[in-house]
Records
---
Amino acid sequence: MNLTLIDWGIITAYLAGCMAAGVWMKRFVRGVEDFAIAGREMDLNLGIASLAATELGVVTIMYTAQLGYEKGFAGATVGVIMALAMFLVGQTGFVIQPLRAARVMTIPELFERRFGKGVRWLAGLFVVLGGLLNMGIFLLLGGKFLVYATGLPPEYLKWVMTGLLGLVLLYTALGGMLSVLVTDYLQFIVMGLGIVITSIIVIGDIGWTNLIQKLWQCWDGSATGVGQTLKSQPFNPLHSSNYGWGYILWQLIFQTAVVTTWQTTISRVLACKDEHTAKRMYRRTSFYFVGRFALPGLWGAAALVYFSFNGGLPEGLDSLTAMPAYLCKILPVGLIGMVIAGMLAAEMSTDSGYLLTWATVIYNDLIMPVVKRPLAAKTKLLITRSLVVGIGVFLVFYGLWYELPGNAWDYLAVTGNIYLASVFTLLVAGLYWKRATAAGAYAALVLGAIGPLTFLVVNQVVSKENQIRPEVAGASSFALAFLGMLVGSLLSHPPSPATAKPEAAV
Amino acid sequence: MNHAFPFFWTAIIFLSIAWYGFLLFYVGYKGGGEIIRMTRDLRKPPPDSKT
């Protein structure tokens, strides 16, 4: 155990402040719209804080550090591509502008106007399935970080996970998006401080030039007694030992789909005051996503160099847990409390945002379309709050028994793809292609989910050398979804002139 | 070793640290004001339609 009384004091003060702010916001919730999208009152800087905090959790730090450990600095290429996609979408308003103008609460709600109720329901089901599977490993990875970074005994992992989730559930279920926004803001500050401090300490500890040289030696195996501890060329993402062209091309499409379709990101677009604010929020947050991969990637690369040149990775550690174990060794007493508070902030902001988003989709797109009689506002709120709690319980159990088939980033990308490929296709076709029909939408939804679901099932049962590569599963789902939309639409009757106009969706 | 890529990642990492540091203060200051305005607006009764 590496925490002193001062560290615990910092962590307790942060948790108490966060909980107080989250619970305090409950008084402003007037209905489901306030609960789910903050009454569309969110302004630019609060949007930046919320978007950045939600999309940067401990799970993000863990998988991006794992990329740094396995692929060197080139592991952060995904972040550069994501930032580029986000900036371009913010500049052009591609998808997000008409989506915000439509005044919907969720993406599937938009599909009902263009393709009918059935497509909305099925799309909602896919969004929830992909989202929950994706979120399933958040607690596990978050808990692992905290256990390894603080030196807590590993058997405390499930208690750390459960306790953390309990705190998040309390304020998210009470105040919804309003609590999430305010706690995201606090968490953005504490988390940012933790990331900046840690990055400076890591560079100071290992030395920049030393890190570059030793990272190269880990790859070419020229250091005496160390050998080749890195299998990927650490700086060039296009090198055949690193991502290579195929993966990079898949990521270009995938990241464009993420920034226009990922429901937790889009929830911030829908909560903005107007379309103009949403576009500015995207442009100004875009570079944050480079650091989201590059800075934890730096910690992961430094962990690789540290362990490679100090007797190798100790038993019980792997590419995922090497980074927190390394931080545990270099962070000075007194500062580790600040860094742990920052990581707790990252975990809590992500969990709360995701819990709320998937609960809103279940409520808005799976339950409400099949409810025959109007519900009272209090009943609607009670349903949404119960869903938040129900998802939390699911996460604790799923997170405890699921074993990752590959590295964490590939799992997240592929589970996200269950709905990203199909919903992205539906969004683009629904907004920009007059000939798109409901038949095409159904075909895209079903075909788009085949690739990632096959990946998850097959890779659980076959040996490692026969496993499907993530870029193959991912790219095929996009290709199949587009093909389904194209063929399904052209083989069915054209939509009526009233619904055929892309503006009908808006 | 080709030095272009290490130089690129050096720039990316140091710019990221600088950007995170800047946003910490800028968004910290501006975002606080926006929370106060948002809670003030939320105290008002909800209008019939919103954009």
---
Amino acid sequence: MREPVTVDGTAAVAIGAVGELLLHLPTVAFATAGPRSGAPGPRLRLSSQASMANFSWEMLLESGTANLPIHLQMRGGEEMLEGGWAAELGEGSGVWGFTWPFTDSERSRLSSARIDLAIWVNARHCYRTTERFVQALIEVRRVVGPSAILWAPRIGTPSNLAMLHYLGIDLLDTTEGLVLAGQGQWLYPEFSIEEPKPVPSNCTCEVCRSPEETERPQGLPAIQERALHAEHQYAEEEARVGFFLRQGRLRELVEARTVSQPALGEMLRWYDGEATRYSEHHASVVGEGVRPYVVTEAYRRPEVEKFRSRFLAQYRPPRSKNVLVLVPCAYTKPYRNSPTHRGFARALESARTPHTVHTVSVTSPLGVVPQELEHAYPARNYDIPVTGSWNSDERGWVTEAVRRLLQGSQYERILVHLPQSEYGWLKEILPPSETCQWTGEGESCSSKPALANLARAAADLPQGKATPFENRREESIAAVAFQFSPGIADSLFAGDTTLRGPPWFSRLTEGKGDVLATWKETRGTWHLTVAGGEKIRSVAEAFSVSVNPDVVLKGDLFAPGVGSAGEEVRIGSEVLLVSGSKLVGVGEATVPGEWMGRLRRGLVVKVRKHGGNV
Amino acid sequence: MKSLVRPEALTVAAERKPEPADEGGEYLKVWHEKESLNGTPCDAFVIILRTSGCYWAHTRGCTMCGYARETLGREATEDEILSQVAKAMTHYRDEPYVKIYTSGSFLDPHEVPPAARLRVAKAFSGRARRLLFESLPEFVTPEAIDGVRKGFEGELEVALGLETTQDDVLQKAVTKVSTVEEYLGAARRLRDLQVLGKAYLLLKPPFLTERQAIEDTVLSIGKAKDLFQTISVNPVHIQGGTLVERLWRRELYRPPWLWSLREVLLRGKESVGDAVRLVSFPTSGGNPRGVHNCLTCDGRVLRAIERATLSQDFEPLRKVAECTCIERWRWENSLEYLAP
């Protein structure tokens, strides 16, 4: 069984337990080969108990303090190639073997079993086709459940370790890498090179450090040297994966590793692709710090896809905005703190009603970011390489988003404060020139003449009808609609509600001052109070987590206490905790809703406010 | 979700069955090879007839067998078989050992009509000392054997594709139609009919590791030695249109090493002693599609295997010079059996 501690996408830092064996996941089992004693240090080892004559696998996982013997009978061709096999290896052991694809029979048996360790017996066969493998992996995890430790034997190498852990495999082994080492390869996570290896090498393993390596004898010692080197690389990469995962940055390591093999790039693209929404279910909706989004694959990270799709599906521009100003994005996040955007804001002060001017940044890969969503994840958390040339994907995202903005046709005028040379391609989707004016100056939109243009144009803008107060309220509604849904936003702001406090610390209150929700600017989310939760309950089923009636919620919510979770619950989602007919608290989900009902152990919701019965 | 579940390679029968052809009167192949008869080296004459082929290959087929591609696509008539034999006879130079294969069973009446069998046997009668043909066990009946014996004055030898004596391996890895017991039953009938029995054992069917494969064949030699006069070890070679070929293309299968074949032959010979002839004539040996080592030392190991096969003296094979690649063989063997 595994108990997730930190969840990052489909990967989890977790404590694993099978029989007597305790594991720190994700991890690599070091294969013991032939006459060698195997892995260095106190690592998990994989060896065979059997005399070689057996027509079965007699695996032994050893942690140094405990052992786990696993007996697996030989599987035939049909099962290896066509799947359709699953069985518990030893009654009551919690260790299951299976081959993919599943029939309904394996699906139902595996989903209802208490699985501690799930061994994907034909993983090597499935691994040969990347699309199939990713599809398989998604189904496998869904079927064996989030509490099973998943082992895919004989596919891990230093270069795919990050990817396979990222896709949710907890346990890999060094067997394949040692075979490759035997065949003459010096493995590195970035690539592998054939024997003879050029020197010097950046590797710090005992083989690469030793000066007499060029004089290596042929035969067994050479194999052992390459194997030692491979094991060192496995150990290094395993540590690196653990480190990046704990930092919540495994995705960045995975992207960096795709350069080693086209297959890894394919897998990442299949995973991010539209075919499965699995990656979206596992993406966090909050994040901290600014992260680089560099390679093309980064532009399809799940959180980016999620931002774009949420924008298209549930964003509504504040109604009182009567003027749209399109501006370029900025390096500084949130944009409004950047020197360029401060300049734009000053220039726009010359409008008669600056608050009804809707400043919207044009950006890749998010499409557009309206000013009231500048704090929403990942709008203040990304950094991309900027060259001024936009590829067709990037243009597509912007085009789609701008069309969405113009759909309501609420804007009387549009100012396009962008250099025409760089953004000329936007012209075809913008309305004719009497309502749309380009205010950029040559190559620049932050130069003095450009800002003067903008200020002049702003002075001519029509006057808006709303007061600044009404406008701020509408912006907040738009942000809540983006975070939850338009229905929840309407219901939360309905009736006698008032926004109080400065914009960076807004509180929404009702009646005499009961707080419904508070705005956390640095995270870009609204935090609900119990009163706020109560108010939106009837429309917030998708964000609700049902707590088992026999659980008295005092601290945080743990896996055994959960009945089920609404379909919109993601890592970082603001959720309502409902027990029977009562709202018992509000908090923040730490695992995807998809996992909540099935996890056997681990924290699932950090409870922020308890309510009702406590 | 788009279904990516493809019925994988196990049912390849349909794809490798050829269209009915007009070449019923043409034999498939003829060649001469070195053999030995009762301890004396001799030449052998080999004919492969073009027939409808093994019925099992057209139903489901074995994982490593691609011979179905070399069949007629329909049943051959008696006249066609005789015409094939007549044409082949022009290459016959009175070799004492004659082997007739059909890409299936010589005794299957759908492949070779009984009347044709008799006349084929007659064609070699008085000229050859031993006539060998191959069959599935269910066709080995006293009537069928008598039908051939009537026409041939000399020893009859029937080869059975036993492959392995482990049912698990036979069913799961080879996917044969018959059970081990059916093969052994046929071998007993041959013994009772005083026909020489030859067993083909398959080295390294798919889904076994190299080490499991070695042990499988050594074990099989031990179990087959009492029922067969000759045991021939056939290392798998990659034939077109087979499951093994698909696995091989995806790097999920490697044909056995010559070191494995050597180990099997040495350990097998120790087990059978002089009572049984233990032989191996590897197809595509020393080639990536066949039994091979590192492709540099293959020649000398193959020559040593051939010498051992013909002389039944295995000492030179034991002493054949090792190559550095033997370390890689040992290394992979010790890794492969760790996990599936």
